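wait is this the right file?? whatever heres the structure
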């Protein structure tokens, strides 16, 4: 891709060298239906080097009209051309200005002088694209991104930072990377941040309102999200967006207003920014009393549901584009608000056009790259901001996320069930060698719990896999030793006469004392001194039902000979960071309706650290180390290969509803169910992405479980013969070969049973490496071991149809992979006797023979070329 981009760049400079720009004519600069003008090259032919599409042709300063000119502010018309009036009053005067601007921009770019370019009055998108193309490639100063909102997001700057400074920051980040590769990386990052880019572009439209600028930094993100969504929705419904005054007005209006009209034809609603919020008044159809409210997500959803915007647009229709504020008060070119589907409109084509859906299934015939692209889809869902320059970097990131268990993989099959996927009972032997049944969490429950821990910003001290210890410090009544422990981040227990349990040199008296303890006391001392470890969770009980403190072990076991406070026997000590004390949180239900026993120290196994944290959160407990900085919300991905091979009802059970985006935890319509084995409440977090793959040759999409079809986005992945373009092995055109094979299969069977391009990619790789002999050997292997067996399966060994697919019915005998041999009556009689009745209808019985792998036909290139005869090409 980079080679092609570089060739395109060189081609542009060859066609429009910088030294020729002073002699550029108006006809060479811009025209209609001419694909060899400077502006056509700039906007269309070099689009892969950076897009400037959108808005009107006025961005070029002057353009040739294809129709009658419309009256607009700041726009002048001649008989043929239209121009920006601030550049001059005639086409010759304007073009002189434009040409001088081109020369100044290109000369400054070649010198790396970005400050001079920034001062030149010309459309920003256009002038920075020109500067990019004419910069010194050996010492670049710009990347191929020209939208200011996009640059702001990529650099983390505000709109007050200039283009030159942002380009300088990005070039500094580039390091030793190829400029075009780095540009693609920036576009990938921008694709993942499209929402922020859109919001920046929308805010830019109201930058002339002082109050808007002063208050914007004070609004919560929810208000900003809702305001931008409302504005975008109004624009999508073709409502104009305008303000009451250019400099001091604080009122933003949506409705219908022409550019030169003094008053609006109709106002749908108004927005009034204040220091803490944005007020909203719905005026359309509310003549007597305006419907007032505060901008919020609820307001946005209500407005969308009401269809009032669409009704307004029907009553006040327009054929033009709806106006933004810039259309009313400024002749300056201001970028269009980037449409979400077109943010990544340049560079390489990526698998996912939009942000990853929570549930998606990649489906298609065998060999179309479903599993291959699963890696990309999984990384994109788990780390939306990650950009990569090569497949190796992508795979390395995928492996890292797998090692961190943020991406997990499972394959469905016919016997796979709920017990393996969610939870079930498992028979295990206990310490007494007795069989008991324990509840075991499946992969889906495990990843949901880990994602939940991240989604609720669980403090880093509470590790998902930490053990949980019940501890009683000097009983449950008031205690000086317990108060001391809480104040000094310690945990302590008695039986100090045992001596230091971490020492191998305990005295005989100490050992005898330990051996003389009861079973519960002995176990408590061993658990406390030998099993509790740093990172484990400790809950200090208040009684049989509830706890009074929660903490995390922060160091190693210690033995204090003098004890703690007034208890000289409390010598066994453990550093514990007490996150919350003075609690009264009931754990009876969480502990499977089991009371906390009198034993001083033991492990609680009936619930996880995540479940404990959720109970604490619901009880309003604020842990002292809790802050947004303690934890970062992370996305998790579960990849389900061959999702259509499993019995969906059997595998998901009642949880199929919980995976719906609207039913996820944290959403308004969130659902929580009780699991049948553990009896615990369960929900699916909204930071868990589910990616399935489905081979349509196994089961048609039409036959998919309806419940699954409604809850997943289906992304079709069909064969792409074009990926094999110009790949020729011993004269065999692989693109043409695959195209013709699939055309025949589609007619004889259906499109869901075609052959994927992935079968031939190893062959292409060898061709690209110049290994023709190995490439042909690989092609033979693909046919013998992949394609022929697949065709046998597709057509249930109907060899007549297989021959049609391979064009063996059109080839001479020596080039046929599957030969056909008629069986005469004497042969049939010899095999079945005279009364076999096999030819009673007069048809000829045939015998089909698949040539042996050692047969010379497999190594004859002509046998493959004959699959796509010239007649097929002509008929296409």
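ok assuming it is, sequence goes like this
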């Amino acid at each position: 891709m980079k080679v092609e981009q570089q060739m395109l760049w060189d081609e542009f400079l060859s066609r429009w060298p910088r030294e020729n720009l002073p002699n550029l004519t108006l006809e060479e600069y811009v025209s209609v239906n001419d694909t060899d003008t400077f502006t056509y090259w700039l906007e269309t032919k070099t689009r892969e080097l950076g897009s400037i599409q959108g808005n009107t042709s006025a961005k070029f300063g002057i353009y040739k009209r294809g129709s009658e000119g419309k009256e607009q502010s700041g726009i002048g018309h001649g008989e043929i051309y239209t121009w920006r009036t601030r550049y001059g009053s005639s086409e010759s005067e304007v073009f002189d200005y434009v040409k001088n601007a081109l020369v100044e921009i290109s000369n400054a770019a070649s010198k790396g002088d970005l400050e001079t370019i920034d001062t030149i009055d010309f459309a920003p998108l256009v002038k920075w694209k020109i500067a990019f193309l004419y910069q010194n490639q050996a010492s670049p100063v710009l990347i191929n991104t020209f939208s200011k909102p996009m640059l702001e997001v990529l650099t983390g700057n505000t709109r007050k930072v200039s283009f030159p400074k942002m380009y300088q920051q990005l070039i500094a980040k580039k390091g030793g990377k190829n400029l075009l590769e780095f540009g693609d990386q920036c576009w990938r990052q921008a694709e993942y941040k499209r929402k922020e880019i859109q919001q920046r572009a929308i805010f830019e439209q109201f930058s002339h309102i002082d109050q808007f600028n002063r208050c914007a930094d004070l609004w919560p993100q929810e208000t900003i999200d809702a305001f931008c969504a409302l504005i975008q929705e109004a624009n999508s419904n073709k409502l104009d967006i305008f303000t009451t005054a250019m400099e001091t007005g604080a009122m933003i209006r949506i409705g219908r207003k022409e550019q030169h009209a003094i008053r609006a034809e109709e106002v749908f609603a108004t927005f009034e920014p204040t220091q803490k919020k944005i007020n909203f008044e719905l005026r359309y159809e509310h003549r007597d009393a305006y419907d007032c409210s505060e901008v919020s997500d609820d307001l946005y959803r209500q407005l969308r549901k009401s269809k009032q915007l669409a009704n307004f647009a029907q009553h006040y229709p327009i054929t033009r584009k709806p106006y933004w504020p810039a259309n009313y008060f400024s002749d300056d070119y201001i970028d269009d608000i980037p449409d979400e589907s077109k943010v990544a409109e340049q560079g390489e084509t990526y698998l996912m056009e939009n942000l990853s859906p929570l549930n998606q299934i990649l489906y298609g015939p065998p060999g179309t790259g479903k599993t291959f692209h699963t890696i990309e889809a999984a990384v994109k869902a788990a780390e939306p901001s990650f950009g990569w320059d090569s497949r190796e970097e992508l795979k390395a990131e995928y492996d890292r996320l797998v090692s961190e268990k943020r991406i997990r993989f499972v394959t469905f099959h016919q016997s796979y069930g709920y017990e393996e996927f969610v939870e079930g009972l498992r028979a295990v032997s206990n310490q007494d060698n007795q069989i008991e049944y324990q509840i075991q969490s499946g992969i889906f429950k495990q990843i949901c719990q880990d994602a939940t821990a991240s989604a609720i910003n669980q403090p880093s001290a509470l590790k998902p896999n930490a053990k949980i210890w019940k501890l009683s410090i000097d009983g449950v009544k008031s205690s000086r030793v317990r108060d001391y422990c809480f104040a000094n981040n310690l945990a302590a227990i008695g039986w100090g006469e045992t001596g230091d349990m971490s020492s191998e040199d305990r005295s005989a008296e100490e050992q005898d004392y330990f051996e003389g303890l009861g079973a519960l006391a002995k176990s408590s001392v061993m658990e406390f001194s030998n099993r509790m470890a740093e990172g484990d969770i400790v809950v200090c009980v208040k009684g049989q039902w509830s706890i009074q403190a929660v903490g995390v072990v922060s160091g190693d076991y210690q033995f204090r000979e003098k004890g703690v406070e007034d208890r000289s026997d409390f010598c066994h000590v453990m550093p514990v960071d007490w996150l919350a004390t003075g609690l009264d949180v009931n754990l009876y239900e969480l502990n499977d309706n089991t009371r906390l026993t009198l034993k001083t120290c033991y492990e609680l196994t009936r619930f996880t650290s995540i479940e404990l944290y959720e109970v604490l959160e619901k009880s309003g407990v604020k842990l002292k180390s809790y802050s947004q900085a303690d934890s970062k919300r992370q996305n998790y991905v579960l990849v389900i290969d061959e999702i259509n091979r499993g019995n969906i009802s059997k595998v998901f059970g009642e949880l199929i509803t919980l995976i719906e985006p609207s039913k996820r935890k944290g959403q308004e319509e969130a659902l929580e169910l009780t699991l049948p084995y553990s009896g615990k409440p369960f929900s699916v977090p909204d930071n868990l992405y589910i990616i399935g793959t489905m081979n349509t040759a196994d089961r048609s999409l039409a036959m998919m479980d309806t419940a699954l079809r409604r809850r997943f986005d289906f992304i079709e992945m069909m064969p792409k013969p074009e990926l094999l373009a110009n790949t020729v092995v011993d004269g065999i055109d692989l693109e043409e070969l695959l195209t013709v094979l699939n055309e025949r299969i589609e007619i004889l069977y259906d499109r869901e049973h075609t052959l994927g391009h992935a079968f031939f990619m190893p062959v292409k790789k060898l061709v690209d490496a110049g290994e023709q002999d190995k490439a042909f050997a690989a092609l033979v292997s693909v046919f013998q071991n992949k394609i022929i067996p697949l065709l046998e399966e597709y057509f249930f060994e109907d060899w007549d149809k297989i021959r049609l697919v391979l064009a063996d019915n059109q080839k001479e005998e020596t080039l046929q992979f599957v030969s056909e041999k008629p069986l005469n009556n004497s042969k049939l009689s010899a095999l079945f006797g005279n009364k076999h009745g096999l030819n009673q209808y007069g048809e000829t019985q045939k015998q089909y023979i698949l040539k042996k792998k050692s047969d010379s036909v497999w190594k004859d290139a002509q046998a493959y070329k004959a699959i796509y005869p010239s007649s097929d090409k002509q008929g296409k």
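The radius of gyration is 36 Å. so i think its the right one actually
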